[in-house]
Amino acid sequence: MENTNTTKAQITEESHQLRQTPTKVTAKRMRSSPGEQQTINTMNIQDMKAMFAELLDDKMKNLATKTDIEDIKDKLVENANQIQSLKEENAKLREEMQQIKESKEVDSRRISHLENQSKRKNIVIRGLACDANQRTFDRVTQLCNEVLNIPSPLPIASGRAVCGGNENSSTSNIVNNFRNFRILSYNINGLKNKMIFPDFFEFVKGHDIFCFLETHIEEKDLENYKKFFSGFELHFKKATRTSQFGRASGGEMYGIKKELRNAVPLYLNCNDWENNFQQLANHLVEENVENTILIGDLNVRIGNIQQNIEEIFLNEFKSGVECRQSKDVVANSRGKKFIELCCDYGQIVLNGRTAGDIEGNVTYISSNGSAVNDLCTVSQEMLTYVETFTVEEREWSDHMPLVISLKLQCEIQQNTERKLLPTLKWKDANRVQYSKKLKENIRTKLQNKTHLDLSDLTDVILKSTPKIRKCKGFYTKKSKWYNFRCFVAKKKAKHLLRKYRRTESSATRANYLEANKKYKDVCLKSKAEYYRNLETRINTIKNGKEWWKLVKELRNRPLINEVRIAPNEFKTHFENLLNHTQTAKDVHYAPNFVEIDELDKPIMVGEILQVLKKAKDGKAPGLDRIPYEFYKNANTEFLEQLAKAYNQMYDSGRADSSSEPSIIFPIHKKGDSSVVTNYRGVAFMNTKEKY
């Protein structure tokens, strides 16, 4: 019993020690057969202790200490630092590779530029006189052989004469053939929304070439805009649509009145600038163009970066200066890249150095600020032809239009647009004053003459007509819906735009943008209101005259279409039309003289009044520009002198010497507007010769 109790105490103590160890051992309940349970019960306690000890040793070998965990953390941090260092080295290598690539492209462009420069002239000769029938090439060859003793054959690739400002040079016959050639470039930010501005199309028609950028016009809508640009040969680049919602983006339109080579309109899209810039560089390399104009929205900012102009071209640049200025002092990487391209190919920026834009006005104004994004450059050889370059003040877009005027020698076809001469305007308020002056001028004329002829009476009317002065600031009705509210809103917007360009104040810029938005809203509301009232006007029509007046207003067809027919062609056409060749023989026959008192008695003032009473107002006059209203409102003294003049003509059988030819005005009837036979002539006679 004593041994048994000792053994139990030892087992209890050892079990207690096992419980005190930090390692937890979870025993799973195992199913066993009755025989196995009997074997376990009969096992020696010592063997069980040994077995548990082995299990504990195995578990302790697999556990990591705190030191091991710290070492693992240090190794992980070290590996992360090595990875970050490798990333930074990789980024530096990529930057170096990009710089090497860009440097290679620059070297390639410079090599191409030097190759092109080597093909150009490298001898400049001043003061060389040439005979009228002698070519410049032959004269240069003669000079080199006889004066400079350069052996023949002379390797001259080309020769060009530059006409300077020499007073002794005989170039007067050439200067008379020069004319100003105007080119317009405009980022209009949507052509559709320009339809509300009635003076927009009049502004465009004053140029020989126009380039519209960001038109937002898709291919299906191109035909709708051709009728607004009559007289221009149009070329389109359709806008692209990336989504079925909203508007299309991009789009360009070019209109050409006259031909001009090497005028390159530019639009470098900010979303694909690098690709567009590379296309421009490739164009300059491949085409090897000289006398080139680059104009458009480049999406670059060049600040006050200067360019060197060769002395020979600077002396010929009469309308500009060497150092350019700019109200936008920011120069970004794109601008520097573009200036580098200009230097490589001899392109000179006109912004800020040319007459009309010496200060370098901003070309883009928005709520985010203003900048000079739109540029115009010309090759150095063309500086002598530049007359002016202006950044116009227009409120139609957030960009300002660029206009370059060139003085070029060309064949001039005048009168591409024919307009009637101005007509004297009658006002009922001036009736008393007009009658008083008529009496005074007639008495003055009669001091030296016994009677007045028709030319004297015409002079009396012109001297007696009160001058109608146009009030300063009074608006002209540019469209059927354009009203005084539109005029006031536009005037305010233009005033603020002019003030901002002068002061560059951010507050003024904000006021201008707000006023410009209000002007557009007023125009839209006035147009909508006009068409809402149109139904009421149609329902209240009382006669055919009012109906056709409304139809004419809605058709909005201009009286005169712009045509490319010379005046001499019209003259020849109407001469052949009105003066047929006579084929029949002349018949000489004189009837017996018959006198009828009722018909042959002198013309009376009452008869003239009766004819004038039937005459309609508003009829077009002839060359003297005097309509019926001035005769209908004349006093009795004037009508008596008019009756005497008619009786004198009737008694003498001769027309008055002051009888003037009629105005034959061509009206297009059908077919091609450039064919002269498709026009019918309408004659406008003087009023005094009609009755």
Write the layout of secondary structure elements.
Elements: H1 2-20, H2 34-41, H3 45-62, H4 66-119, H5 136-146, H6 172-175, E1 178-187, H7 200-204, E2 209-213, E3 233-237, E4 252-256, E5 263-267, H8 273-287, E6 293-297, H9 311-316, H10 333-344, E7 347-349, E8 364-366, E9 369-371, E10 374-379, E11 386-391, E12 402-409, H11 431-446, H12 454-464, H13 484-503, H14 506-532, H15 534-539, H16 544-555, H17 567-578, H18 597-600, H19 605-614, H20 629-632, H21 636-652, E13 663-668, E14 679-684
Parallel strand pairs: 1-2, 5-6
Antiparallel strand pairs: 1-12, 2-4, 3-4, 6-10, 7-10, 8-9, 11-12, 13-14
Helix pairs in contact: 11-12, 13-14
Q: Any idea what the CATH superfamily of the domain at 179-409 is called? A: Endonuclease/exonuclease/phosphatase
Cα separation of the termini: 167 Å
- Strand tally is 14
What radius of gyration results from the CA coordinates?
A: 46 Å
- CATH architect. name of the domain at 179-409: 4-Layer Sandwich
Strand order of the largest sheet: 3-4-2-1-12-11
> Count of helices?
21
What average pLDDT do the residues reach? 77
The CATH topology of the domain at 179-409 corresponds to: Deoxyribonuclease I, Chain A
Helix content: 40-55%
CATH class of the domain at 179-409: Alpha Beta
Category from helices, strands and their pairing:
alpha+beta
